[in-house]
Amino acid sequence: MKTDNKVVWAADPAHSEISFKVKHMMISTVTGYFENFTATVESDGENFNNADIRVDIDVPSIRTKSEDRDTHLKSEDFFHADAFPKMTFRSTSFDGEKLTGELNIRGRSKEIHLDVVSNGIAVDPYGQTKAGFEITGEIHRKEFGLMWDVVTEAGSIVVSDKVKLAIEVQFIRQND
Fold first, then answer.
1. Number of alpha helices (DSSP H) and beta strands (DSSP E) in the chain
2. Least confident of 43-57, 84-98, 151-165
3. Residue 51: pLDDT over 90
4. Which residues of 55-67 are buried (b: 16+ CB within 10 A; e: fewer)?
5. How far apart are the C-alpha atoms of 120 and 38, rounded to whole Å?
6. Chain-wide mean pLDDT for the chain?
7. How far apart are CA 160 and CA 136, in angstroms?
8. pTM of the model
9. Is residue 164 classed as helix, strand or coil in its secondary structure?
10. From residue 13, how far is each of 41, 47, 48, 120, 127 by CA, in Å?
């Protein structure tokens, strides 16, 4: 429930990261991240419970330490970045530990649940109020239309359906 104490926070890109991990051939894990994204929070003062959280991710900014793999991930086999250049997340509830919202990838929306650890609020040497969070969870890529699937001759799946999310975010209070 919003009050007159509405506070807007924006992610500090220099101190925030959206990353993911996915099994490759079921024997190793590939880590990737998105270089470009925006995240905003509208809260009641410094109380983040039931805050309105919005995240927009630029799909073409995906990086996995392999240019060929990044190009493949942007193709129609996976994200189809030409047709769907943005992924979005819009919160529907947050109790301080559990964050629920609608994730949209490739034009498909699905409710997801994430675990949140608050690292607190602090004022930096420049007088800016900042809040830090660690957010984790997992999604199943095929539920969002990322259907590419290959099996090796030995029967191993090349890319796992399960994708683990790891998000570190530091928000800067905008109306100080």
1. 1, 11
2. 151-165
3. yes
4. bebebebbebeee
5. 20
6. 94
7. 18
8. 0.93
9. strand
10. 14, 22, 20, 18, 18
